[in-house]
User: What shape does this take?
Amino acid sequence: MRLLALIAVVLTGGLIIFHTGDLPDFGDPNSPASTHLSPYYLEHGEGDTHAPNIVSAVLADYRGFDTMFETTVVFAAGLACFFLLRRKTEPGDKPRMYRHLPTGVTLRIKSGGTFPEEDSTEFRRMDSHFVPHQIIIKNTCRLVIPFIQVFALYVVAHGHYSPGGGFQGGVLLAAAIILYAISHDLRRSIHRFSEKVAALSGSLGVFIYAGAGALCLLLGANFLNYEALGPLLGVDAVMARSHGILIIEIGVALAVMAVIVWIYYNLSSAGKHDEGL
Amino acid sequence: MTDLLPLIAAKYNYWIYTILMMIGLYAMIAKNNLVKKIIGMNIFQTAIILFYVSIAYKKGATLPIIMGDGHGGGHGAIQAADYINPLPHCLMLTAIVVSVATLGVALALAIKIYRQYGTLEEDDINHQIRMQAGQ
Amino acid sequence: MTTPIDLMILTLVVISGVGALAVKDLLGAAIVFSAYSFLMCLAWAIMGAVDVAFTEAAVGAGVSTVFCVAAVFHTTRRTKD
Assistant: This one.
């Protein structure tokens, strides 16, 4: 089996390398990829949309239909993970471990006993793999997480002028929440940003994107033609396209953040949402 | 053979892309462990993205962010040869986000398979399926 | 450019790609995969694709590694090949 795979792979690779003579040179400005459509985007992109970052302008305005379906694919992947892995925990599933804070004694309460209430100040719930209380990691992450979130919002808002945009900002926001879930407990992160909020935010992000397109349709122009939003927002056609790009980038950031956090919750606890990494 | 060296020097990005793609393809076919297959799939996807990004490169050109001279005003004629091609970058942003979504679903499937069969090696799983089908 | 820095980084990419598949410990494979992802991000940044490199840095070297480590945590760590 491995020999067959090796032969097939070497044959395919050899065939591709043999034909690289026909491909254009590396760095050639006159290659066919750079001469048909992209000069139009480069020359007219900023004049049409008032966004110097041409990649964001192409992604959100000229090719906005692809980006809408990509956001839908990301949301569908989050749904697929949820349907595959999610299991409800029975109250009597496993014995729980608690630490009595004043004395430092660890309790192990079997199923069927009485557990301490959720927010008691004397008992703190521990994971079944023993993790010591880490002051340095917890406090350093508490200091760093707000700055990560502010930077993520900056990246979303400045997608027009610098590298960035909706996806990058959404992934950074999700990374901040995942950092909180890793350094502190998974349960505290679920308590603050629960699964229901994540699922609803994901669908809200897709709704904002498709809704902006449908709004343009209702106002009489084509689907996702942001110039129709001009009279609604009170600006001229070019600035309306710029604001349209910002609205859908916000939708994309919300959807991507929610789905990545949702997939992390399901993967790191294998569906049970009680313990994590 | 003397004309091979200028050929390699002019098109080395295609050679590296082909080698990476074949490494990923071999891992997806020949490795036994499911997580190694998933890593091979991701190597394959990033090799394709490398191919498109290297097509977009132009020698002597700068980033596809239009440098202006203040707000509004006449920017003058924007030469397309001064900026690298932005269209493949846009397509590859979509590809990266789809690849991370696919990675999440593939790892969820791997966890479920482990829960059911107790192992992640492909030949052990095939053996167990055949034993269950034979009974 | 006189120093072929992108050729050096692409060579390191191929080496770490082979390394991620050859390591016998799945946790080690996830970490080498993260290094592969970061080197790809550098290669794309040198070729001028800054948006793509930004996304790959956030997604590949961050979120993707966490997903792999979480999956290895809930399955087994040993592998025979």
About this structure: Residues 53-88+134-268 of chain A form one domain. The radius of gyration of chain A is 25 Å. The mean pLDDT of chain A is 86. The interface with chain C takes residues 53, 55-56, 163-165, 167-168, 171-172, 174-175, 178, 182, 260, 263-264, 267-268, 270, 277 of chain A (CB under 8 Å).
